[in-house]
User: Fold these one by one.
Assistant:
Number 1:
Amino acid sequence: MRLAHTLHVAAIVVAAALSASSHAQVSELMRFETSPRVVRSGDHTGPAGGVDVEPELRYYTVVTDPGANLMRVHFGAFDLGRVSEIRLSSIEDGRTQRFTDETLVAWDGWSAIFNGDAVLVELIVAADETASFEIDEIASNRPVVQFGEDGGVATLCGSDNRSASNDSRVGRLSGANCGSGGGCGGCTAWLTSLGCALTAGHCGTASGGLLEFNVPNSDADGTPNAADPDDQYPVGVNYYAFQNADEGFDWAIMDVGPNSNTGLRAQAVQGYFHLSPVIPADDATLRVTGFGLDDSPSGSSPNLCCSWDSNGNCTKNGCNATSLTLQTSTGPKTDDTTNTLLYAVDTEPANSGSPVIRSSNDFAIAIHTNGGCTSSGGANLGTRLTQATLDQYLNIFLGTNGRFVDAAAPSGLPFGTALNPAWSVPSGISLTPSGGTLSVAGGTYSAASGNTGTFSTPMTIIAPSGTVTIGN
């Protein structure tokens, strides 16, 4: 029997606690906590007859956690042979997820997020195979009920100017366990042309981390609903590097695994951001897009608390159906330092990890981490992509002797690095050491732009973020 895939963390950077001078922006409403749940299917053999015989259902069970709003299931061990499958279905809405042995390894044994408090788990065994699984725990999200007066912490720069967004490159981030140091999520993350996802370091989601795209509306009282399993992707299974320190030292890099139903990579379906080291002058228009809370107008339970400070005091009441769904806002850049970017752009709890985007060219330039705006002024804040340690680990993500090509790169020096990529494939090849890896961002690299030639250096060339066409 195969044990669930062991998490391989490529790099961890740990530093001091967050500064108290501004507010990290996570949401407890996306809080998941794990609990033991032991279910063993036993060994089951499929029908005889060879490959032309259809697989058959051999075992099923219903995993429940009464009162849960959202659920995930973890398989501690499994053996699904070559083509046998596990199928999970929400009892509430019937949405399903399928796993083979290979895809369950890629998800680190964790399922997608399902709506409701009950999940049907079926073992479908192929002809002439024997298969089994063991469930060892579940992760549950349940509504937090707390009534109280609004505590007053806000990070809106005046009135709320956010509007609904359909930017599929930005996802809602959660982790499987808040209760034992495994990371909580309740944040935002986004896809990059490098093939990784970026978020804030304090979002802490290496264990069971998951990204949802095309998230539906919440309930009228702000209770979140899950995206379709076809739009969910595991993160941080094979690479998770982070720094969780003071302002400007708060970031995380995660690999993104394939969707188990479609087999597709997130960037190929949802798109991605190009990265830029170039910081505009003050007053340039910036955009922040993410999954912040929303209480304007008030939801169906105006006295129900939906956000708390570190002391447990309520800071927001009456979240609504657009809370924890994708929204965007623009505003001016107000300042910058070596490691930070400041801007008067509306954000709310759960916006932590959002991309900070330069509106003039749609390139991402920072990771949103902290709220500092008030009704009378101030600014919100993010970690610049050029922060030295973040830049270092973006290049580590490219692999040993890795180089990067992006035809859409902004003006800069074409060094073949994560933030200063080469602009053509021949240039990237010339920069890549023998035996190295050249990552080429999705796009067309035409012959007219110099993408032709004969090359003899041995290397691996990959397309981490979408289809690459070379030489047309």
Number 2:
Amino acid sequence: MADTIDALKAAKTADAVNVGRRALSLCLLLAAAAFPQGFVETFSKSFAGRGGAGPGAVIGIAVFFGVVIGLSVFFYIGSRHSHEKIQEKLSAELFGEGCERTRLTRDEMNALLGIVAFAPDPPTKGHLIFESLQLYERCVDAYVEHTPRLRASSGRGGGVEEQDDLLLRLRKKMGYAILAPEQPVVSTRNLSVGQKISVFVPGQRNESFSANVTHVGEFWFTVRLQEDFMGLVSLGGMEKTLAFLRQGDAAYSVTVRVKEISQSGEMIFFHSISLSRNQHRQYMRLDIDLAVKYRVIERVGGFDERPSNELLSAHTADISGGGVCLIVKEPLRVGDVIMLSVYIPGCAINDVRSKILKVIAVEGRMATHYRHLVQFISIEPQQREKIVKYIFDKHRASLQKR
């Protein structure tokens, strides 16, 4: 692949050089033929006051600059067209490699080609469908919107069912069936079966109905209300607002159109990519036991009480880019400031100034231990990035084992 890219770049450079040389030669020849006398002599006389330039010189100058501008435009258009052709060829090669890597069948690849056709620049950037969930969901949504025969059908048999199964297989092979914890929800197609949601009528948030997601397809999804759904139906309207909380991520809301309501209390909705995300937690947490060393540097309470600066050992219950949950035998006080060192595999995060936010006593069989919610108040960006990267890597590894 690298050899192909280098060869194409070299060919492009050679073509540009040749075109530039031919353009320059043609420009000089046309300009020379247009001047009735030498360019330098005419130009000098015109600006030195020794005589005005004749009509032939003026015409020659106009022709000269006209040719230069015309050739520049021609060269730019040709170069741009050549660049687009190269990018299109590279994208096609990368798209083919992506299909082979994900082991797509002929039907799945044809479906993906139909989806890629809705990308902003499909000939030159279609391969990015393998790298961007946002692009994939945007294209799938447009693809479904432009298949009215399938979308408008009220049944689940025949072509709709086959197409839905095909797109679901494609989603799994593309790696978009299960989102990593750090990946925000992009579409209602990212909902999971069993997800708890609240159903509202737009503009009437005081009336909410609890429900669970029971089916997620590519054309629509289904929720089952946990209570009398006739109250929701009576409020009318073909649009409902759904709200749900994704653990460790954020709170989401989205307005979706109702496809149908069954007598058993299920509501079927068309999908939407217009989700509103309200930040719930800035950093993803990871439940893990890590070794920790700390010393108290500031105490709250009595002014005569000074920290001992003794280096103590503890371990974590979880960690995030914003802090840790410490497990210690002797409780600290809320507001105490500690200097913390956490040892993650491959490196140590040393001397992080942190503050105790909350202390929780946990009764055990043999003894009581204390959970301390600790916030980093002074941490280097590089240290935080190491923690966040470690958490993301652990989450990805756990997803791959599913």
Number 3:
Amino acid sequence: MYWNRPARQSFKHHTTPRCSPKGETLDFRARLIMFLLASLTATLAACNRQPSTDKETVALIPMGSTDEFWKSVHAGGVQASQKLGVNIIWQGPIRRDDRTAQIDVVESMIVRGVKGIVLAPIDNMALRAPVEDAYRNKIPVVIIDSNLNSDKSVSFVATDNYKGGVMAGEHMIKLLSGKGRVAMLRNVEGSASTDNRERGFLDALKNAPGIKVVSSNLYAGATTESAYKQSENLLAPLKTAQGEIGLDGIFCPNESSAFGMLRALQDGDLTGKVKFIGFDSSEKLVEGLERGHMDALVVQDPVRMGYLGVEKLVAHIHGKKIEKRIDVPATLVTRENLKEKSIKELVAPDIKKWLAE
């Protein structure tokens, strides 16, 4: 990180004559009015600045800014900031695989001198250096959602993603009665959260010898468009000449990969022919579940994750001891429990009241 050196400024010496060219002195009353107006302007400016200087400012930096999951994290962070009386800066990359952009955001917050940072690292290694830079600058960092390969953060707030993957794998075994051909479309390389979900899913399937994993090496990429293309690439070699699919189950480990696969199944007229489990929720994924195009979603609580990230950071700033690891449990959502009040609030949280349009 480089600090920009202030540009040199040159000042010309100006002298203001006490008298006009005609030798007339400036009217005393006019000078008095100008002085009073200047004083009033300075006082008003100081009053207008007061709220921001009184409040501590913290940054909340997500992996991306377009997924419904991250909008919900934002809503939770805003809710906590309002309750605790702190300012919050929400800024992150548009693409959830743009490591460079996220590093730039972290470094800009360090330069800005925020009191603390809540970060969902895109890459568990690439974000290590900027987090340790924040540590050297005495700016505490709370990690959320996806872990970081560093001991310089003050807490980690997340779902047990491995356990969430196991939950998906165990439900797949149940849906298939322990036998069949299964594929998994991975998310992106380097994301600790989805890496753990993928590993948990595959480990769970080892307990069902009748299930064969026929594809698990394709990555969806960071967007629904790239996920859609990779989903088609995964499905194409498994289709028969009659248009059938030689596949019984599919798992996708995050919102964008699941939505890309859902679109590919819909366009290929394959919905309902393959048991399909996704991870996280959005309006389109919930609709897919309701229509029978999906069979289950493993859902986190992103609003609570954002809230706890900010809450624990502020507690640490104020000298309170906080837990090193805070779990936000995942829930298996199916068509059978989708209408329950607690599940409806989980898959479709009311985030608009916290986020300005």
